[in-house]
Sequence to fold (90 residues):
Amino acid sequence: MTLSLSIVGWIVIGGLAGWIASKFMNTDAQQGILLNIVVGVVGGLLGGWVLTVFGVDAAGGGWIFSFLTCLAGACLLLFIVGLITGRRHA
Fold:
């Protein structure tokens, strides 16, 4: 039986992943809890998309895989935003 993530699950995982990614990328002082959640959820979408491009089934990985996907995607998102805005992170 596979458990899919609900909206609340995505918010919780996204918020946690966004917060940890902002710690990794040194952007935590600039972000609040809402932006951490947005970065984590959008990072999850970005990370999931990147994984599917490489042929990885991102949807069937479970909670831990989803968290790691969100975390990696959030770090990638913050890195890209830093490049665009000219701010250096990490």
In short: Residues 49 and 58 are 8 Å apart (CA to CA). Residues 7-83 form one domain. DSSP finds three helices and no strands in the chain.
